[in-house]
Design brief:
Blueprint: E1 2-3, E2 13-18, H1 21-32, E3 36-41, E4 58-69, E5 75-92, E6 98-104, H2 111-130, H3 135-143, H4 147-158, H5 162-169, H6 174-192
Parallel strand pairs: 1-3
Antiparallel strand pairs: 2-5, 3-4, 4-5, 5-6
Length: 193
């Protein structure tokens, strides 16, 4: 599924409303098979992703956790991010794409290297509280112990610019991803101050 301004990170939950015919067919196919599909970001300046290079080929693979279909054929669903993936080609393109893909595993880093950047990210998250972030989100983020999951959760929840989120999604190395999250959070909170 190619969308403007929307990305799916591992471990994130994403509510979706499916109304386009091609995506109705994709959802039906996914529910009949493995209950999974990818969400890819459409490139800026593209109105509809007709060609393969109209969207980014690093995307989020999601599992359909819940789906309710209305009588008119539209559906509300909850997608749970499972992994970063890279499209290696397409076996079908119409009415929806079926991709050959490779899972991009996260590359861990020693805690002594990641902890200072995580502390910086948590400090930056406090700026979001000052700008209206709810205490529930902040409490959830502060309780996360896994730095890989924290990087993705913060990117999914707080980084607003889709191109910045795409850059973070494409980075498998944890240390570099944390640095990107901190840098982008700093830039966005400075712009909102």
């Amino acid at each position: 599924m190619v969308l403007p301004s929307t990305l799916l990170f591992p471990n994130a939950l994403m509510p979706l409303y499916i109304f386009e015919q091609r995506y109705r067919e994709m959802l039906r196919w996914a529910l009949e098979h493995d209950r999974a599909f990818c969400v890819a970001l459409r490139k800026p300046g593209i109105d509809d992703a007709v060609k393969d290079d109209d969207f980014f080929h690093t995307a989020g693979l999601g599992m359909i956790r819940a789906c309710v279909t209305a009588q008119d054929g539209t559906s509300h669903l909850m997608l749970h991010g499972m992994a970063r993936v890279r499209f290696e080609g397409f076996t079908k393109k119409k009415p929806f794409r079926i991709a050959k893909l490779t899972v991009i595993p996260p590359e861990r880093a020693p805690v002594e290297q990641t902890e200072p950047i995580v502390a910086e990210i948590r400090t930056l998250c406090e700026r979001f509280r000052e700008q209206g972030m709810t205490e529930n989100i902040e409490s959830f983020l502060f309780k996360m112990k896994d730095h890989d999951q924290l990087a993705d959760a913060v990117a999914h929840s707080l980084v607003q610019d889709p191109m910045r989120r795409q850059e973070i999604l494409e980075e498998p190395r944890l240390l570099e991803r944390l640095k990107l999250v901190a840098s982008h959070l700093d830039a966005e909170t400075a712009n909102n101050a």
